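Please, structure for the following, as tokens.
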Amino acid sequence: MTLMADNQFKEYLKLIEDYDNFIFDLRGEAKMSEHVVSLFTDKELKSVNWEIPIYTYPEKFKKSREIIKGELNAKSRFKNKQLVFLINERTIGYSEIIARIVKENGLGTLIGRPSNGNPSETITTRLAGGFNISVSVINCYDNYDMSLINKPIIPDILVEDNLEYILKGRDTIIENALRFLNK
């Protein structure tokens, strides 16, 4: 989900109809929207609400806000499939929103490590040394109007990294996902 946008995924829909299991990688910023998960259920999904701050005076005085309700209508195209979503500390922005929708609606199993805690519309810039900086530009809230910032998503199956495996280039999160699907 971090490498393919909605329109690219749409091109593969015919090809994947016969598969029973799917692994979606949410480690990073998703290019797909949260609407893709609606293909995998026949139930209306709870989503997040988006806040757009509105400043009516200079220097951010008289702030009001516009709330856009998150609604995802079921598409049912791939219902009854087993879904696994990979998350870790790099899961941010839309990836984190998708992971939250999956967890709150029981759509699949989250495997990995806790997410970043920044589910929002983000602008990400690459820095020197392989670092990135992400800035939230639109915040999101749950259905009780509680901010979701700084509230990481805890996976259903926690995977701790092992320095030996990292040095060997092994991806313990995907290894655990494959073991989970092969049970």
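The CA atoms of residues 124 and 134 lie 4 Å apart. The chain is about 20% helix and 30% strand.
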